[in-house]
Design a protein that fits this description.
By secondary structure, this protein is an alpha/beta fold. The chain folds into five domains: 64 residues, Ribosomal Protein L25, Chain P, CATH 2.40.240.20; 117 residues, 3-Layer(aba) Sandwich (Alpha/beta knot); 63 residues, no CATH class; 121 residues, Rossmann fold (3-Layer(aba) Sandwich); 140 residues, Rossmann fold. 40% of the residues lie in helices and 18% in strands. The chain has 20 helices and 17 strands. The strands form four sheets. Strands 7-6-5-9-8 form a five-stranded parallel sheet, sandwiched between helices. Strand 5, helix 2 and strand 6 form a beta-alpha-beta unit. The longest helix is centred in the middle third of the chain and has 34 residues. The chain is elongated and about 100 Å long.
Length: 568
């Protein structure tokens, strides 16, 4: 069966003009005759001629026949064309019939042919794939100067054929089957010694770069493997292996680490001294336990100031109880374990530990801001264990009950609004909120935001600020839920209110990733960058401090714990 080259057959069911002329005028093919087509991209097509005229040959595709690659890897030949073009054309033909992927012509120092027309070579390649029944047409590149060519990146192995002194291993003994390979072939007068030296130096540099990237990619994959919200029997080993692999990298290799979630900051960012923290996972603790449950943070200083600060306050207020810790974010637990070798329990681990320690009375104090998704998951976990304790009580999160709509506030929200605002005003260097207002300063408190029904809590906090007469205090959320708390909406509201100075501070228990990156980061989508980019404000400052570090907030958690204990 006749084979025709039809590179656009997927879009146009018609033979190219030259192929159509050959089919109709030379081979005398007619409507109803079957032909075989190839697009040169990996497929054959069994087709039937539907229309045959002097200039056109239309076809109907009967069957698509993909051809699996006949070899592995990408084979690239770069050669200086010979003075006699017949020899170059013969090489192109036979190389295609044997099989390769790409052909580049080189202009070298000793090249006798400096110009080449690729149109004829292209026709030879097409003829060769039809003759050898190959469905992939090698890529043909124009003439390229040698020095420019070797500066281009090429993955895989690289070889240069020359006649200078030195070891001359056979290509068949050196090439690794299945890997990408580039072979350089010089002119009749050979490559110059300088060209050979440059090629070797470039290859050595690229080899080092490839090795560096491969090492970095391996670590990135290991980080991505532990960046998961699920603990398995392999987690401990995975965390240890990832840190060991990171430590084995050079500084240059560390900068190359990038994966779906991995980057150099995963291990490399300095977030403070982890040794100042206490994972609170000790055993033999007695019958009474207060389990303080947090989402968690990998920022060491923030974890100490905010989460440990709350835990310490609760412990000081309850000397007859053992205070223990659990995080709900396994991703964060793994990060801390891998980087700092600090082992923090997740909810199941903490509850299993309490059962094993013989705890009878368990009080669970969430540090979560509200009754959101994290709180719901916490309650589900507690529910599964409640029968293993004599009593289980769950204290309120920071903002207390959610309420039905944006107008509903409570004593907890009022206390948080007052305490947070007072701390922000003091940190900004003002004697009062009114003094800051007179100076044109607006305080923007950025929460996380959520699609959970509890998102109304953010609107309630804005209501509470308004009820307190805090006209220059605005509530926003990273996630932009509710809609009025999105960054662009907050910028608009602050500007329309006439304030020219802005102080950004997190409405979050912990000043962790969101505070450092989403609020105060250098990326263009951070709140700091967006407020500055708006051009509406004379100054935009940030306060990177969590709610958990404020003593009055710590006292509020203590009160919530006491209220839960008092319940009957």
């Amino acid at each position: 069966m006749h084979v025709f080259y039809t590179p656009d057959i997927q879009a146009h069911a018609e033979l190219p003009e030259e192929e159509a002329a050959h089919a109709v005028r030379v081979l005398r093919l007619q409507a109803g005759d079957e032909v075989m087509l190839t697009d040169g991209k990996g497929c054959f097509y069994r087709a039937e001629i539907s229309t045959a005229t002097n200039k056109r040959c239309l076809v109907n595709i009967l069957e698509t026949l993909p051809q699996a690659p006949l070899w592995k890897g990408h084979l690239h030949i770069a050669m200086a064309p010979t003075k006699n073009m017949d020899r170059t054309e013969w090489f192109a033909e036979k190389a295609t019939e044997i099989g390769f992927d790409e052909l580049t012509f080189l202009n070298c120092r000793f090249s006798e042919r400096k110009v080449i027309k690729t149109e004829r070579i292209s026709k030879i390649l097409v003829s060769a794939i039809k003759q050898s029944l190959k469905a992939r047409l090698p890529q043909l590149n124009e003439m390229t100067d040698f020095n420019k060519f070797i500066t281009q990146p090429f993955p895989g192995q690289k070889f240069i054929a020359h006649c200078y002194e030195g070891e001359k291993p056979l290509l068949k003994d050196m090439v690794h089957p299945g890997e990408d390979a580039l072979v350089l072939i010089g002119p009749e007068g050979d490559f110059s010694e300088e060209e050979v030296r440059k090629a070797a130096e470039t290859a050595a540099t690229e080899s080092t770069e490839d090795a560096d990237q491969a090492a970095a990619d391996e670590v990135a994959a290991m980080i991505d493997a532990i960046y998961v919200q699920e603990r398995t029997e392999n987690t401990d080993k995975q965390c240890a292996d990832a840190k060991a692999a990171w430590d084995a990298l050079t500084d240059a290799q560390k900068e190359l680490v990038e994966g779906e979630n991995a980057d150099p900051d995963y291990f490399g960012r300095d977030t403070g001294d982890a040794s100042k923290d206490d994972p609170r996972n000790q055993d033999e603790i007695g019958e009474n336990e207060i389990l303080v449950v947090s989402f968690g943070t990998s920022f060491n200083d923030s974890r100490v100031a905010d989460i440990k600060g709350i835990e310490d306050a609760i412990a000081a207020a309850n000397p007859d109880w053992s205070v223990r810790r659990a995080f709900t974010a396994q991703i964060i637990i793994n990060h801390i374990q891998a980087r700092d070798d600090e082992h923090i329990d997740n909810m199941d681990q903490a509850l299993d530990r309490a059962v094993a320690n013989g705890v009878k009375n368990l009080v669970v104090q969430p540090t979560h801001l509200m009754h959101g998704a994290e709180y719901d998951e916490l309650m589900q976990a507690v529910e599964a264990y409640k029968d293993q304790f004599a009593s289980v009580k769950v204290a309120e999160p920071l903002l207390g009950e959610v309420g039905d709509d944006a107008t509903v506030v409570n004593a907890d929200k009022k206390a948080v609004a007052e305490d947070l605002t007072a701390e922000a005003v003091k940190t900004a260097g003002y004697d009062s909120l009114d003094a800051a207002k007179e100076d044109g300063v607006a305080f923007v408190f950025m929460g996380h935001g959520t699609s959970h029904t509890a998102k109304v809590s953010y609107s309630q906090m804005q209501t509470q600020m308004n009820d307190l007469g805090y006209a220059n205090v605005f509530i926003g959320t990273v996630e932009g839920e509710p809609e009025e708390t999105a960054c662009e909406e907050v910028i608009k509201a602050v500007a329309e209110a006439g304030y020219t100075k802005v102080v950004l501070r997190p409405l979050m228990v912990v000043a962790g990733d969101h505070a450092n990156n989403d609020m105060a980061g250098e990326d263009e989508d951070s709140w700091l960058s967006q407020f500055n980019a708006s051009g509406k404000f004379d100054s935009v400052d940030t306060q990177i401090s969590g709610l958990g570090g404020i003593k009055a907030i710590q006292d509020l958690y203590v009160a919530h714990t006491a209220a839960a204990m008092a319940e009957k």
